[in-house]
Amino acid sequence: MFRAYFDSRHFEFEAYGSTEEKAIAALKKGLRAHGRNCRDITPNWWKEYGEDINCYEINLNHAYRDRSEIT
């Protein structure tokens, strides 16, 4: 499983997918929906931040600290 995330000044957005591409696509879909739901911003508002979307793989049944697996 993969976790894609994006931080703005006000919110931390995240989405999950079975592949990195699916997680990022789900996150972008959510970011566009957030833009549609807010009257003051456009649907692609997040691109103004330089599309700084990050993604990493999550191993189920493992513990993480600061997005790194604890071994």
Which characteristics define this entry?
about 25% helix; 1 helix; about 70 residues; two-stranded antiparallel sheet; elongated; 3-stranded antiparallel β-sheet
Oligomer: single chain
Overall helicity: 25-40%
Q: What's the N-to-C terminus distance?
A: 18 Å
Strand order of the largest sheet: 2-1-3
- Rg from Cα: 13 Å
How would you explain this protein's 3D organization?
By secondary structure, the chain is an alpha+beta fold. Helices cover 25% and strands 28% of the residues. The protein has one domain. It has one helix at 20-37, and strands at residues 2-7, 12-17, 54-57, 64-65, 68-69. It has a 3-stranded antiparallel β-sheet. Strand 4 (64-65) and strand 5 (68-69) form a beta hairpin. The longest helix is centred in the middle third of the chain and has 18 residues, at 20-37. The model has no long low-confidence stretch (mean pLDDT 87).
Topology of helices and strands:
Blueprint: E1 2-7, E2 12-17, H1 20-37, E3 54-57, E4 64-65, E5 68-69
Antiparallel strand pairs: 1-2, 1-3, 4-5
Question: What is shown here, in short?
Answer:
The chain is 25% helix and 28% strand. It is an alpha+beta fold.
